[in-house]
Specification:
439 residues; Protein-Tyrosine Phosphatase, Chain A; 3 domains; six-stranded parallel sheet
Length: 439
Protein backbone atom coordinates (compact mmCIF):
# COMPACT_ATOMS: atom_id res chain seq x y z
CA UNK A 1 0.00 0.00 0.00
CA UNK A 2 1.38 3.42 -0.97
CA UNK A 3 1.88 5.91 1.83
CA UNK A 4 0.80 9.54 1.78
CA UNK A 5 1.45 12.21 4.40
CA UNK A 6 -0.62 15.36 4.74
CA UNK A 7 1.00 18.39 6.36
CA UNK A 8 -1.65 20.68 7.83
CA UNK A 9 -5.02 19.56 9.15
CA UNK A 10 -7.47 22.33 8.37
CA UNK A 11 -10.23 22.22 5.72
CA UNK A 12 -8.13 21.10 2.75
CA UNK A 13 -6.02 18.77 4.88
CA UNK A 14 -8.95 16.79 6.22
CA UNK A 15 -10.47 16.54 2.75
CA UNK A 16 -7.20 15.27 1.32
CA UNK A 17 -6.90 12.64 4.04
CA UNK A 18 -10.45 11.32 3.57
CA UNK A 19 -10.11 11.17 -0.22
CA UNK A 20 -6.72 9.47 0.01
CA UNK A 21 -8.09 6.84 2.39
CA UNK A 22 -11.04 6.22 0.07
CA UNK A 23 -8.60 5.68 -2.80
CA UNK A 24 -6.61 3.08 -0.87
CA UNK A 25 -3.68 5.09 0.46
CA UNK A 26 -2.08 4.55 3.87
CA UNK A 27 -2.71 8.03 5.31
CA UNK A 28 -0.90 9.99 8.01
CA UNK A 29 -1.91 13.56 8.94
CA UNK A 30 0.50 15.84 10.80
CA UNK A 31 0.02 19.41 11.99
CA UNK A 32 2.65 21.58 13.69
CA UNK A 33 -0.11 23.45 15.53
CA UNK A 34 -3.33 22.30 17.16
CA UNK A 35 -6.13 20.72 15.13
CA UNK A 36 -9.65 22.10 15.54
CA UNK A 37 -12.02 19.80 17.37
CA UNK A 38 -14.36 19.30 14.42
CA UNK A 39 -11.44 18.22 12.23
CA UNK A 40 -10.11 15.86 14.92
CA UNK A 41 -13.58 14.34 15.09
CA UNK A 42 -13.62 13.78 11.33
CA UNK A 43 -10.21 12.09 11.44
CA UNK A 44 -11.32 9.83 14.30
CA UNK A 45 -14.57 8.91 12.55
CA UNK A 46 -12.59 7.79 9.50
CA UNK A 47 -9.93 6.03 11.62
CA UNK A 48 -7.16 8.13 10.08
CA UNK A 49 -3.84 8.30 11.93
CA UNK A 50 -2.94 11.86 12.98
CA UNK A 51 -0.77 13.98 15.23
CA UNK A 52 -0.66 17.64 16.31
CA UNK A 53 1.84 19.95 17.97
CA UNK A 54 4.79 18.74 15.88
CA UNK A 55 5.92 16.45 13.08
CA UNK A 56 7.21 12.88 13.42
CA UNK A 57 9.75 13.25 10.65
CA UNK A 58 10.42 9.56 10.03
CA UNK A 59 6.76 8.94 9.18
CA UNK A 60 6.65 11.90 6.81
CA UNK A 61 10.00 11.27 5.12
CA UNK A 62 8.88 7.68 4.58
CA UNK A 63 5.84 8.73 2.52
CA UNK A 64 5.62 8.11 -1.22
CA UNK A 65 3.93 11.50 -1.67
CA UNK A 66 3.28 14.50 0.56
CA UNK A 67 0.37 16.92 0.24
CA UNK A 68 1.14 20.13 2.11
CA UNK A 69 -0.84 23.13 3.19
CA UNK A 70 -0.10 26.00 0.79
CA UNK A 71 0.84 28.16 3.76
CA UNK A 72 3.94 26.05 4.47
CA UNK A 73 6.93 27.62 2.66
CA UNK A 74 9.73 25.76 0.95
CA UNK A 75 12.12 27.14 3.55
CA UNK A 76 10.53 25.03 6.32
CA UNK A 77 13.18 22.51 7.48
CA UNK A 78 10.93 19.49 6.91
CA UNK A 79 10.12 20.62 3.36
CA UNK A 80 13.84 21.06 2.70
CA UNK A 81 14.40 17.44 3.75
CA UNK A 82 11.59 16.22 1.48
CA UNK A 83 13.02 18.21 -1.43
CA UNK A 84 16.48 16.73 -0.83
CA UNK A 85 14.94 13.25 -0.75
CA UNK A 86 13.03 13.86 -4.00
CA UNK A 87 9.60 13.17 -2.50
CA UNK A 88 6.77 14.57 -4.66
CA UNK A 89 5.12 17.50 -2.84
CA UNK A 90 1.60 18.27 -4.07
CA UNK A 91 -1.23 20.69 -3.43
CA UNK A 92 -4.67 19.45 -2.43
CA UNK A 93 -6.07 20.50 -5.81
CA UNK A 94 -3.48 18.50 -7.75
CA UNK A 95 -4.23 15.39 -5.70
CA UNK A 96 -8.01 15.72 -5.81
CA UNK A 97 -8.17 16.27 -9.58
CA UNK A 98 -6.78 12.76 -10.14
CA UNK A 99 -9.98 11.25 -8.80
CA UNK A 100 -12.63 13.66 -10.11
CA UNK A 101 -14.71 13.35 -13.28
CA UNK A 102 -15.74 17.00 -13.00
CA UNK A 103 -14.61 19.83 -15.25
CA UNK A 104 -13.04 22.92 -13.72
CA UNK A 105 -13.25 26.70 -14.00
CA UNK A 106 -10.09 27.92 -12.26
CA UNK A 107 -9.63 31.53 -11.18
CA UNK A 108 -6.43 33.19 -10.03
CA UNK A 109 -5.03 36.71 -9.88
CA UNK A 110 -3.53 39.09 -7.37
CA UNK A 111 -6.90 40.75 -6.83
CA UNK A 112 -10.53 40.08 -7.65
CA UNK A 113 -10.40 36.32 -7.61
CA UNK A 114 -12.76 35.78 -4.67
CA UNK A 115 -15.48 38.02 -6.10
CA UNK A 116 -15.05 36.51 -9.58
CA UNK A 117 -15.04 32.95 -8.23
CA UNK A 118 -18.15 33.59 -6.15
CA UNK A 119 -19.91 35.25 -9.09
CA UNK A 120 -19.10 32.42 -11.50
CA UNK A 121 -20.33 29.88 -8.95
CA UNK A 122 -23.50 31.94 -8.43
CA UNK A 123 -24.19 31.98 -12.19
CA UNK A 124 -23.41 28.27 -12.60
CA UNK A 125 -25.65 27.37 -9.67
CA UNK A 126 -28.49 29.51 -11.03
CA UNK A 127 -28.08 27.79 -14.42
CA UNK A 128 -28.92 24.44 -12.83
CA UNK A 129 -25.42 22.96 -13.19
CA UNK A 130 -24.18 20.34 -10.75
CA UNK A 131 -21.36 22.51 -9.40
CA UNK A 132 -19.05 22.71 -6.40
CA UNK A 133 -17.19 25.72 -4.99
CA UNK A 134 -13.69 25.06 -3.67
CA UNK A 135 -10.01 26.02 -3.58
CA UNK A 136 -9.42 28.99 -1.30
CA UNK A 137 -13.15 29.31 -0.77
CA UNK A 138 -15.97 26.96 0.17
CA UNK A 139 -15.60 23.31 1.21
CA UNK A 140 -12.51 21.25 0.49
CA UNK A 141 -12.25 20.20 -3.17
CA UNK A 142 -10.85 16.83 -2.12
CA UNK A 143 -13.70 16.21 0.33
CA UNK A 144 -16.29 17.04 -2.30
CA UNK A 145 -14.61 14.64 -4.73
CA UNK A 146 -14.66 11.96 -2.03
CA UNK A 147 -18.28 12.44 -0.98
CA UNK A 148 -20.24 13.97 -3.88
CA UNK A 149 -18.13 14.45 -6.99
CA UNK A 150 -19.71 17.20 -9.13
CA UNK A 151 -19.89 17.72 -12.89
CA UNK A 152 -18.29 21.15 -12.50
CA UNK A 153 -16.06 22.87 -9.94
CA UNK A 154 -15.34 26.56 -9.61
CA UNK A 155 -11.92 26.83 -7.96
CA UNK A 156 -10.23 29.91 -6.52
CA UNK A 157 -6.50 29.16 -6.74
CA UNK A 158 -3.61 31.02 -5.08
CA UNK A 159 -0.05 31.24 -6.34
CA UNK A 160 1.02 29.01 -3.43
CA UNK A 161 -1.35 26.27 -4.62
CA UNK A 162 -0.25 26.65 -8.23
CA UNK A 163 3.38 26.10 -7.22
CA UNK A 164 2.60 22.48 -6.36
CA UNK A 165 0.25 21.67 -9.25
CA UNK A 166 1.82 19.79 -12.13
CA UNK A 167 -0.49 17.54 -14.16
CA UNK A 168 -3.61 19.55 -13.35
CA UNK A 169 -5.36 21.09 -16.36
CA UNK A 170 -8.09 23.72 -16.13
CA UNK A 171 -10.96 23.41 -18.58
CA UNK A 172 -11.41 27.17 -18.28
CA UNK A 173 -8.59 29.22 -16.74
CA UNK A 174 -9.22 32.79 -15.61
CA UNK A 175 -6.40 35.19 -14.73
CA UNK A 176 -7.64 38.51 -13.38
CA UNK A 177 -4.37 40.43 -13.08
CA UNK A 178 -0.79 40.21 -11.81
CA UNK A 179 0.33 42.87 -9.34
CA UNK A 180 3.02 42.69 -6.62
CA UNK A 181 1.91 40.41 -3.79
CA UNK A 182 3.48 37.78 -1.54
CA UNK A 183 6.91 38.86 -2.76
CA UNK A 184 8.38 37.76 0.56
CA UNK A 185 7.57 34.19 -0.55
CA UNK A 186 9.23 34.68 -3.96
CA UNK A 187 12.65 36.08 -2.95
CA UNK A 188 11.25 39.57 -3.60
CA UNK A 189 11.46 38.85 -7.35
CA UNK A 190 8.37 39.90 -9.30
CA UNK A 191 9.18 37.50 -12.14
CA UNK A 192 9.06 34.53 -9.76
CA UNK A 193 5.59 35.54 -8.59
CA UNK A 194 4.47 36.18 -12.19
CA UNK A 195 5.71 32.75 -13.26
CA UNK A 196 3.67 31.22 -10.45
CA UNK A 197 0.46 32.93 -11.59
CA UNK A 198 1.05 31.90 -15.21
CA UNK A 199 0.97 28.24 -14.16
CA UNK A 200 -2.84 28.56 -14.40
CA UNK A 201 -2.53 27.73 -18.13
CA UNK A 202 -0.25 24.73 -17.72
CA UNK A 203 -1.21 21.66 -19.78
CA UNK A 204 -4.06 23.45 -21.53
CA UNK A 205 -4.81 22.60 -25.18
CA UNK A 206 -6.83 24.57 -27.75
CA UNK A 207 -9.87 22.66 -26.45
CA UNK A 208 -9.52 24.63 -23.19
CA UNK A 209 -9.95 28.37 -22.76
CA UNK A 210 -7.85 31.07 -21.10
CA UNK A 211 -9.87 34.16 -20.07
CA UNK A 212 -7.75 37.13 -19.05
CA UNK A 213 -7.69 40.92 -18.67
CA UNK A 214 -5.77 42.14 -21.72
CA UNK A 215 -4.86 45.51 -20.16
CA UNK A 216 -2.82 43.92 -17.40
CA UNK A 217 0.79 45.02 -17.73
CA UNK A 218 2.21 41.49 -17.48
CA UNK A 219 -0.07 38.84 -18.97
CA UNK A 220 0.23 39.54 -22.71
CA UNK A 221 4.00 39.86 -22.41
CA UNK A 222 4.23 36.58 -20.50
CA UNK A 223 2.19 34.80 -23.18
CA UNK A 224 4.56 36.11 -25.87
CA UNK A 225 7.62 34.99 -23.87
CA UNK A 226 6.23 31.50 -23.49
CA UNK A 227 5.41 31.29 -27.19
CA UNK A 228 9.12 31.94 -27.80
CA UNK A 229 10.18 29.13 -25.47
CA UNK A 230 10.71 30.96 -22.17
CA UNK A 231 11.16 28.39 -19.41
CA UNK A 232 10.70 29.85 -15.90
CA UNK A 233 12.53 28.45 -12.92
CA UNK A 234 10.19 26.49 -10.64
CA UNK A 235 10.13 26.98 -6.90
CA UNK A 236 12.26 24.47 -4.91
CA UNK A 237 9.34 22.15 -4.10
CA UNK A 238 7.88 22.49 -7.58
CA UNK A 239 8.94 21.37 -11.04
CA UNK A 240 8.71 22.99 -14.48
CA UNK A 241 5.20 23.71 -15.71
CA UNK A 242 4.09 22.14 -18.97
CA UNK A 243 2.78 25.37 -20.45
CA UNK A 244 -0.21 24.83 -22.65
CA UNK A 245 -1.65 26.33 -25.80
CA UNK A 246 -5.19 27.31 -24.82
CA UNK A 247 -7.75 29.19 -26.86
CA UNK A 248 -7.34 32.79 -25.73
CA UNK A 249 -10.29 34.92 -24.61
CA UNK A 250 -8.94 38.34 -23.64
CA UNK A 251 -11.24 41.14 -22.49
CA UNK A 252 -10.83 44.89 -22.00
CA UNK A 253 -12.55 47.41 -19.74
CA UNK A 254 -14.46 48.92 -22.68
CA UNK A 255 -16.18 45.56 -23.30
CA UNK A 256 -18.41 46.20 -20.28
CA UNK A 257 -20.25 49.03 -22.03
CA UNK A 258 -20.02 47.41 -25.47
CA UNK A 259 -21.83 44.35 -24.13
CA UNK A 260 -24.38 46.50 -22.29
CA UNK A 261 -23.53 44.95 -18.91
CA UNK A 262 -24.59 46.26 -15.52
CA UNK A 263 -23.37 44.90 -12.18
CA UNK A 264 -24.62 45.07 -8.61
CA UNK A 265 -21.16 45.83 -7.16
CA UNK A 266 -19.36 49.20 -7.07
CA UNK A 267 -16.05 50.12 -8.73
CA UNK A 268 -14.23 49.74 -12.04
CA UNK A 269 -12.42 46.66 -10.78
CA UNK A 270 -15.77 44.96 -10.22
CA UNK A 271 -16.68 45.61 -13.85
CA UNK A 272 -13.59 43.55 -14.74
CA UNK A 273 -14.72 40.83 -12.35
CA UNK A 274 -18.12 40.82 -14.07
CA UNK A 275 -16.52 40.60 -17.52
CA UNK A 276 -14.36 37.65 -16.48
CA UNK A 277 -17.39 35.84 -15.09
CA UNK A 278 -19.44 36.69 -18.18
CA UNK A 279 -16.89 35.19 -20.58
CA UNK A 280 -16.10 32.17 -18.41
CA UNK A 281 -19.75 31.16 -18.12
CA UNK A 282 -20.41 31.92 -21.78
CA UNK A 283 -17.70 29.36 -22.62
CA UNK A 284 -19.63 26.80 -20.58
CA UNK A 285 -22.77 27.60 -22.55
CA UNK A 286 -24.82 29.40 -19.91
CA UNK A 287 -27.65 31.44 -21.45
CA UNK A 288 -26.64 35.08 -21.84
CA UNK A 289 -29.96 36.41 -20.50
CA UNK A 290 -29.45 34.44 -17.28
CA UNK A 291 -25.88 35.75 -16.93
CA UNK A 292 -27.10 39.34 -17.26
CA UNK A 293 -29.78 38.73 -14.64
CA UNK A 294 -27.25 37.18 -12.26
CA UNK A 295 -24.88 40.14 -12.63
CA UNK A 296 -27.61 42.46 -11.39
CA UNK A 297 -28.74 40.18 -8.55
CA UNK A 298 -25.34 39.03 -7.21
CA UNK A 299 -25.26 39.86 -3.47
CA UNK A 300 -21.48 40.39 -3.25
CA UNK A 301 -18.73 38.85 -1.13
CA UNK A 302 -18.20 39.24 2.60
CA UNK A 303 -15.13 41.33 3.52
CA UNK A 304 -14.86 42.77 -0.01
CA UNK A 305 -16.18 46.35 -0.21
CA UNK A 306 -18.94 45.20 2.12
CA UNK A 307 -21.24 47.98 3.32
CA UNK A 308 -21.50 47.54 7.08
CA UNK A 309 -23.59 50.47 8.35
CA UNK A 310 -24.07 54.21 8.21
CA UNK A 311 -23.68 55.87 11.59
CA UNK A 312 -24.14 59.62 12.17
CA UNK A 313 -23.81 60.27 8.46
CA UNK A 314 -20.61 58.21 8.12
CA UNK A 315 -20.61 55.10 5.89
CA UNK A 316 -18.46 52.19 7.13
CA UNK A 317 -17.11 49.71 4.55
CA UNK A 318 -15.34 46.43 5.32
CA UNK A 319 -12.69 45.58 2.74
CA UNK A 320 -10.58 43.37 5.01
CA UNK A 321 -9.82 41.07 2.09
CA UNK A 322 -7.67 43.83 0.56
CA UNK A 323 -4.34 42.38 1.65
CA UNK A 324 -2.11 44.10 -0.90
CA UNK A 325 -1.49 47.58 -2.27
CA UNK A 326 -3.35 47.12 -5.55
CA UNK A 327 -6.50 45.89 -3.77
CA UNK A 328 -6.48 49.01 -1.61
CA UNK A 329 -5.92 51.18 -4.69
CA UNK A 330 -8.98 49.85 -6.50
CA UNK A 331 -11.06 50.16 -3.32
CA UNK A 332 -10.12 53.83 -3.01
CA UNK A 333 -10.97 54.32 -6.70
CA UNK A 334 -14.50 53.12 -5.92
CA UNK A 335 -15.02 55.64 -3.09
CA UNK A 336 -17.25 58.65 -3.84
CA UNK A 337 -16.92 60.32 -0.39
CA UNK A 338 -13.96 61.78 1.53
CA UNK A 339 -12.47 58.66 3.09
CA UNK A 340 -10.88 57.73 6.40
CA UNK A 341 -8.63 54.83 5.36
CA UNK A 342 -7.66 52.08 7.82
CA UNK A 343 -4.36 50.57 6.68
CA UNK A 344 -1.75 48.27 8.20
CA UNK A 345 -0.94 44.78 9.40
CA UNK A 346 1.75 42.27 8.51
CA UNK A 347 3.68 43.86 5.68
CA UNK A 348 4.53 41.56 2.74
CA UNK A 349 7.18 43.73 1.11
CA UNK A 350 4.66 46.42 0.11
CA UNK A 351 5.63 49.48 -1.91
CA UNK A 352 3.20 52.16 -0.73
CA UNK A 353 4.46 54.81 -3.18
CA UNK A 354 1.82 53.81 -5.75
CA UNK A 355 -0.88 54.84 -3.24
CA UNK A 356 0.40 58.33 -2.46
CA UNK A 357 -1.48 60.19 -5.19
CA UNK A 358 -4.83 58.46 -4.68
CA UNK A 359 -4.57 58.77 -0.88
CA UNK A 360 -3.91 62.48 -1.30
CA UNK A 361 -6.91 62.72 -3.62
CA UNK A 362 -9.43 60.57 -1.77
CA UNK A 363 -8.52 60.49 1.92
CA UNK A 364 -9.52 62.86 4.70
CA UNK A 365 -7.56 60.83 7.25
CA UNK A 366 -5.48 57.71 7.83
CA UNK A 367 -5.71 55.30 10.74
CA UNK A 368 -2.79 52.90 11.07
CA UNK A 369 -3.64 49.48 12.51
CA UNK A 370 -0.76 47.14 13.30
CA UNK A 371 1.81 45.93 15.77
CA UNK A 372 4.47 48.04 14.03
CA UNK A 373 3.29 51.04 12.01
CA UNK A 374 6.70 52.61 11.36
CA UNK A 375 6.70 51.84 7.63
CA UNK A 376 3.25 53.41 7.28
CA UNK A 377 4.39 56.57 9.05
CA UNK A 378 7.40 56.76 6.73
CA UNK A 379 5.21 56.31 3.67
CA UNK A 380 2.20 58.54 4.39
CA UNK A 381 2.90 61.09 7.12
CA UNK A 382 4.57 63.38 4.54
CA UNK A 383 1.17 63.96 2.88
CA UNK A 384 0.00 66.19 5.73
CA UNK A 385 -3.25 64.24 6.14
CA UNK A 386 -4.46 63.64 9.73
CA UNK A 387 -3.22 60.26 11.02
CA UNK A 388 -3.84 58.09 14.08
CA UNK A 389 -1.69 55.25 15.37
CA UNK A 390 -3.61 52.23 16.76
CA UNK A 391 -2.78 48.69 17.78
CA UNK A 392 -6.20 47.08 18.28
CA UNK A 393 -9.48 47.15 16.38
CA UNK A 394 -11.25 48.77 19.32
CA UNK A 395 -8.81 51.70 19.36
CA UNK A 396 -8.91 51.83 15.56
CA UNK A 397 -12.68 52.24 15.35
CA UNK A 398 -12.60 54.85 18.14
CA UNK A 399 -9.98 56.80 16.18
CA UNK A 400 -12.14 56.63 13.05
CA UNK A 401 -15.19 57.94 14.94
CA UNK A 402 -13.14 60.86 16.25
CA UNK A 403 -11.70 61.66 12.82
CA UNK A 404 -14.72 61.17 10.52
CA UNK A 405 -17.32 63.83 9.75
CA UNK A 406 -20.84 63.46 8.39
CA UNK A 407 -20.60 62.73 4.68
CA UNK A 408 -17.34 60.78 5.07
CA UNK A 409 -16.65 57.09 4.56
CA UNK A 410 -14.53 54.87 6.80
CA UNK A 411 -12.83 52.20 4.69
CA UNK A 412 -11.04 49.18 6.18
CA UNK A 413 -8.75 48.28 3.26
CA UNK A 414 -5.52 47.36 5.03
CA UNK A 415 -3.02 46.52 2.21
CA UNK A 416 -1.48 43.95 4.53
CA UNK A 417 -1.94 40.46 5.91
CA UNK A 418 -3.80 40.24 9.22
CA UNK A 419 -1.65 37.87 11.23
CA UNK A 420 0.05 40.45 13.46
CA UNK A 421 -3.13 41.26 15.43
CA UNK A 422 -5.81 38.87 14.13
CA UNK A 423 -6.34 35.18 13.42
CA UNK A 424 -6.97 35.92 9.75
CA UNK A 425 -8.53 38.55 7.52
CA UNK A 426 -12.03 37.25 8.34
CA UNK A 427 -11.40 37.81 12.05
CA UNK A 428 -10.19 41.34 11.29
CA UNK A 429 -13.32 42.09 9.24
CA UNK A 430 -15.69 40.57 11.81
CA UNK A 431 -14.18 42.58 14.65
CA UNK A 432 -14.55 45.75 12.58
CA UNK A 433 -18.18 45.00 11.74
CA UNK A 434 -19.09 44.15 15.33
CA UNK A 435 -17.60 47.35 16.72
CA UNK A 436 -19.16 49.50 14.02
CA UNK A 437 -22.62 48.05 14.60
CA UNK A 438 -22.28 48.75 18.32
CA UNK A 439 -21.66 52.48 17.74
Amino acid sequence: MKRIARLGAAESGIGTAILAQKQGWDVFVSDMGSIKERYRTMLEEHHIDWEEGGHTEDRILNADEVVKSPGIPDTAPLIQKLIAKGTPILSELEFAKRYSHGKTICITGSNGKTTTTSLIYYIMKRSGADVGLAGNIGRSYALQVAEEDHDWYVLEISSFQLDNMFDFRADIAVLMNITPDHLDRYDFEMQNYTDSKMRIIQNQTPQETFVYWKQDEHIDEELKKRAKGYAPQPTPSSKPAKFGNPTLKPFEDSDFEKLGLTFSQMGQHNKRNALAAYWATRQVGVDEALILQCLNEFPGVEHRLERVAEKNGVLYINDSKATNVDACFVALQAMDRPTILIVGGKDKGNDYSTLLDIVQQKCAGLVYLGVDNAKLHNAFDRLGIPVADTHSMKDCVEACVNMAKAGNCVLLSPCCASFDLFKNMEDRGEQFKTLVREL
